[in-house]
Automatic annotation (TrEMBL):
Pfam families: BPD_transp_1
Record field: transmembrane: 12-33, 53-78, 90-115, 168-194, 214-235
Residue span(s) of domain ABC transmembrane type-1: 54-239
Main location: membrane
Domain of life: Bacteria
Keywords assigned: Membrane, Transmembrane, Transmembrane helix, Transport
Similarity field: Belongs to the binding-protein-dependent transport system permease family.
Entry membrane topology: Multi-pass membrane protein
Keyword Secreted: no
Protein name, as recorded: Osmoprotectant uptake system permease
Gene3D superfamilies: MetI-like
Subcellular location: Cell membrane
Length: 267
């Protein structure tokens, strides 16, 4: 028997509170970093405020992940339809290449064409995040039990109704798992955007590497890591809620459930 989790034992609450405390209070930790890194004359990164860096980091990750979700989800949906199945090997090859192509190399190719700034970073991150979304879309749609699909067709549902009322709700948890992986990958990879002049949580890391200032590296890496953990925990909650959303969307399928039960009993 499982007991409901008490609010004060929620890891998302404490991890989020720690992340916010470090984001807004990093400047007040100067004595601590002085003690940890006594060889550093200025152990706190001050070229930009940490809230600004976090906001810029989140925006880049949000835009690139949204592009990956739209393109990857749409492409994955297309190759699971009757008319697009022949393109599935080609799609999987393309997104696999996008995943294996180093983001730094994408930046090196994109910068001469569109210049420094946010755009090359978004392109690199969107390409890098496509593979998990495409694979989870295909896996989620293929995990829908064929008897359920056949029963829905037997009830006279159109293709759109079958997709919206049956396939998408049942595929949602698997699809969200892929989106979760894509977003977490992008949070970690977005730090490289600072190499092309985009302020992110990678800025103190890169400045620290070039200036042999380990304190800067720790500050940037700590916030980027906590951001990834908080986002991962939030996605975990979203996936739990997706189960409720799937059940809530099932009333139109009530006859389907009955049909499935009848089918199971006849076996």
């Amino acid at each position: 028997m499982t007991h409901p989790r008490r609010w004060w034992s929620d890891p998302l609450l404490w991890t989020g509170a720690l992340f916010l405390a470090l984001m807004f209070g990093m400047a007040h930790l100067a004595p601590l970093f002085h003690a940890l890194f006594p060889e550093q004359e200025r152990p706190i990164y001050t070229q930009a405020s940490f809230p600004q860096l976090v906001l810029a980091h989140v925006l880049i990750v949000g835009v690139s992940s949204a592009i990956a979700v739209v393109l990857g989800g749409g492409a994955g949906l297309l190759v699971t339809r009757e008319g697009g199945r022949d393109f599935r090997p080609l799609l999987e090859t393309i997104v696999a290449i996008g995943q294996t192509f180093p983001p730094v190399a994408v930046l090196a190719v994109a910068v001469p064409l569109i210049g420094f700034g946010v755009k090359p970073a978004i392109i690199a991150l969107a390409l890098y995040g496509l593979l998990p979304v495409v694979q989870s879309t295909i896996a989620g749609l293929e995990s829908v039990p064929p008897p359920v699909v056949e029963a829905a067709r037997g009830l006279g549902l159109s293709r759109w109704q079958l997709l919206r009322q049956v396939e998408l709700p049942l595929a949602l948890p698997v699809w969200l798992a892929g989106v979760r992986t894509s977003v977490i990958i992008n949070i970690g990879t977005a730090a490289i955007a600072s190499t092309v002049g985009t302020p992110t949580l990678g800025s103190p890391i890169i400045v620290g590497l070039s200036g042999f200032n380990t304190a800067y590296i720790v500050e940037g890496a700590l916030l980027a890591g906590l951001l990834a953990v908080v986002t991962d925990l939030a996605f975990e909650r979203l996936m739990i809620r997706s189960q409720a959303w799937r059940l809530a969307s099932m009333p139109p399928n009530r006859p389907i459930t009955s049909a499935s039960s009848a089918s199971a009993q006849s076996r």
